[in-house]
Write a structure and sequence with these properties.
Radius of gyration: 13 Å
CATH class: Alpha Beta
CATH architecture: Roll
Number of domains: 1
Number of strands: 4
CATH topology: Ubiquitin-like (UB roll)
Helix content: 10-25%
Distance between the termini: 40 Å
CATH superfamily: Phosphatidylinositol 3-kinase Catalytic Subunit, Chain A, domain 1
Number of helices: 2
Structural class: alpha+beta
Strand content: 15-25%
Largest sheet: 4 strands, mixed
Shape: globular
């Protein structure tokens, strides 16, 4: 199986979380979203007290138990990429 193409961008109004140095990722199909989020957390160098959320279409919170393949099939863009946005909790409040 070929890896999935995922682009992860920072929410445009985000002020707390740092930007990622790399936004394009090749991700294994069977990887749970929770593991991908953990890898992103490491790349962002977040403290254990900091929270971040992954969003689809800047509004929907995907289930962390979903595999990347399930998420990709449900939400991929016409260009073949899966777009995710990350944001801190403050954007909801």
């Amino acid at each position: 199986p070929s890896p999935l193409q995922v682009i992860v961008e920072r929410y445009q109004k985000e002020r707390t979380l740092p930007p990622l140095t790399r936004t394009k990722f090749l991700v294994a199909e069977d990887l749970p979203l929770a593991h991908f989020a953990s890898a992103l957390r490491s790349r962002l160098c977040l403290a254990s007290s900091q929270t971040f959320y992954l969003l689809l279409d800047n509004k929907a919170l995907p289930g962390v138990a979903m595999t990347m393949q399930e998420l990709y099939q449900a939400s991929k863009d016409e260009d073949g990429f899966l777009y995710l946005t990350y944001a801190s909790q403050e954007m909801f409040g």
